[in-house]
Every structure is written in structure tokens, then in C-alpha cells.
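This section describes the prediction task in plain terms. A model, or a person checking by hand, is given the sequence of a single protein chain and must write out its three-dimensional structure as a string of C-alpha cells. No templates, partner chains or ligands are provided. The sample shown here is typical of the held-out split.
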Amino acid sequence: MFDHIILLKKLAIGSAALLAAGPAFAGQGKPVVVYGEAVENVRTVRVSYADLDLASAKGERELSARVGGAVQQVCLFGVDGPRLQSSGYHECAGEAWTSARPQMANAIARANEIALNGKSSIAAAAITISVR
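The expected answer:
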């Protein structure tokens, strides 16, 4: 518990520094990368979709397949071993999909805006699947 409080304090300080520096980076077209300490017993997979046309049904299907693979990757093995046959896997997968769906919707909405307007007001972001 104590480690989590320290981590949260560090993240809050880092976030405040990033927000204060934000205007200095505005309009430079450079990505802002935020680093944080790893949290114990959290498995994370980032799903790349840069090569997909998410404005098409085929691209959406491929994204869904990739997210499904990432969900399996983070949920298949827990700290205590395989979970496929246990309710732990299904609970984990449900939580992972619940987290992934809004991220997928944002990515698809961004792709559709770009297809229609040549630009989007939605920031580009990777889809991240994280579970404990």
C-alpha cells in the first residue's frame, strides 16, 4: 500500500510538471512521452494499429482481432499461473475489453474524421490493455 501511495505522488508531480511544460511544446509536432514506474503485478500490452485503415470494416475487424490477442496475452497467465479454465480469466478478459472498447472507438472515430476532413480533433493514442 505504501509503495502505491509513493507511486501516485510521483505520478502527480510528474503530471504537474508535464502540464506546466505543455504550452512550451504546443505546435511543435513532437510527441510528448511520459515515463512512470512499473506497478507490481500489472501486465500491459500496447496494440499497434498504425498500419490499419480504421475507416474501413476490414481495418476495424483486424483491430478487434489484435485487441483480442492482447486481451488473451495479459489475461491468460496471472501471477499464480494459467487462468484459462478458471473464472479468473473470464473476469480479467471482461475488464480488459471494457477498458479497450472506448480506446478502439476513439481510434476509429479519429480515422473516420481524417478520412472525411483530412484531419482530426481526436489525439492519436495507442490502445493499451492493462490488468492486475
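For orientation: Residues 42-132 form one domain.
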